[in-house]
Specification:
This protein is of the alpha+beta class. The chain has eleven helices and twelve strands. The chain has a domain of 145 residues.
């Protein structure tokens, strides 16, 4: 059954549509709608609870471009994410399970959006859209691709090669090892990812564990010592060993060059 909007609800939506607004901020409605501060807070809270508008954060709300069918509306994920990050004048890139799915590495469609960014951390929700925001240093952002949604919005994703590196780097968060090894093999062997580009991205965005694991993987795939030299130069001297598959016991053949224990057998 369609929800009947109140007079103030209708006036708010009409005002936003007339001005071409996608967001409303607390304090913006008092003069045009002749509301007291208390009335404005009550109106925004009521419309959020009824699902007509969506709260981005306290004092910032997304409004539908037109009267929602059935009186309920929820913004799409990209509009919500862009608004969240733009509000903080930050940068983001969608990563992890969402990028795995976008590039065809994994068929599973995530229930939430994972995004590296330089402003916010933790789980957030805007309407029905759920987010896991991973705050990183500015230097950890980069190597992205921009896609346009059906609605004309720009969505920033980690690039194909960066996504592969992050699948090794952030394996514990994304539960992506050992699957990532097979993704890398397939992408390099099919020519969708250039091994030299993968090496450069690993050096730029990886940590020591990532460099070791990807170096060992590429050597297993037959890359020459000359092509792997850049990865080896990025390694710091260490006598410690790391497991090929971090969730399994560290028992197996040892690769001394990369300091990796092949515990997959």
């Amino acid at each position: 059954m369609a929800k009947t909007l109140g007079q103030l609800d209708t006036r708010l939506l009409a005002y936003a549509q007339m001005r071409g607004l996608r967001t409303i901020r607390l304090g913006e409605l008092r003069e045009p709608l002749r509301l007291s501060p208390r009335q404005e807070v009550g109106l925004l809270s009521r419309m959020t609870r009824s699902g007509v508008i969506a709260r981005v954060r306290r004092g910032l709300y997304l409004v539908p471009p037109r009267l929602p069918l059935g009186g309920k509306w929820s913004p799409d994920e990209i509009l919500s994410l862009n608004t969240l990050i733009d509000d903080r004048k930050g940068r983001y890139q969608i990563c992890g399970p969402n990028a795995f799915n976008r590039y065809g590495f994994d068929a599973q469609i995530p229930a939430r959006v994972y995004a590296y960014n330089n402003r916010l951390s933790g789980d957030r929700a805007v309407g029905s859209a759920a987010f896991t925001l991973i705050k990183v240093a500015d230097k950890r952002l980069g190597d992205t691709e921009v896609f346009e949604t059906a609605g004309g919005l720009q969505a920033v994703y980690s690039s194909r090669v960066r996504t592969l590196v992050d699948a090794v780097y952030d394996w514990s968060r994304f539960d992506s090892l050992p699957r990532a090894y097979e993704w890398i093999r397939q992408e390099v062997n099919a020519g969708r990812v250039d091994a030299s580009e993968l090496i450069g991205t690993t050096v730029r965005f990886g940590n020591q564990g990532t460099i070791r694991r990807i170096g060992a993987l590429l050597e297993r795939e037959g890359l020459s010592a000359r092509r792997l030299a850049r990865l080896q130069r990025a390694l710091r001297p260490s006598t410690s060993l790391i497991p090929w598959i971090p969730t399994l016991p560290k028992r197996g053949k040892t690769d001394q060059r990369w300091g990796v224990v092949f515990n997959d057998r």
